[in-house]
Specification:
By secondary structure, the protein is mostly helical. It has one domain: Jann2411-like domain (Jann2411-like fold), CATH 1.10.3300. It has a two-stranded antiparallel sheet with strand order 1-2. A two-stranded antiparallel ribbon has the order 3-4. Helix 4 packs antiparallel against helix 5.
Length: 180
Amino acid sequence: MNFDAYARTAVDLVNARLDDLGGLKALFTGEELAWMGDEVTEKDLAGLRRAQRRLREVFEYGTSGRDADVVTELNSLLEAYPVQPRISGHDAGDWHMHVTGRGASVGAEYLAGAVWGLSVWLCEYGSARFGICADERCGNVYLDTSSNNCRRFCSERCATRSHVAAHRARKRAATTLTPA
């Protein structure tokens, strides 16, 4: 199982716009998640919104060094969305693991994987690797995969935008301080 990919689904959920069913369907991109977009319901949307808020709290706790709160919340989410692994596939060359039993809702299956992946990530790398974008206009969460745990932004776009804004602010400040 690719636990990093499951952990990234938690990030994707927290950063998703879940205004309506269309926004939720946009979350299910890629070959392995496409079937979820076809089966998702309004009930899944409501459950995923609630989980989205709770997962954001996990990132907020992690970025502020509140490890005990991260563990408490993840344990609570693991209880609410238990992993029930099963082997699935269509032929002998396509066997793979799913994280929930047959009959689970799309939301329950997605959340079981996301919470499991984030929990494994915590145990492997620690909550210091949970991040919230430093660009004030963004607020997206990310998992810090840098070699020295120095990532501050969710993307290159946010990093560039923030650095350009800081440069312009310094330039404006220097211009106002320079006598005419």
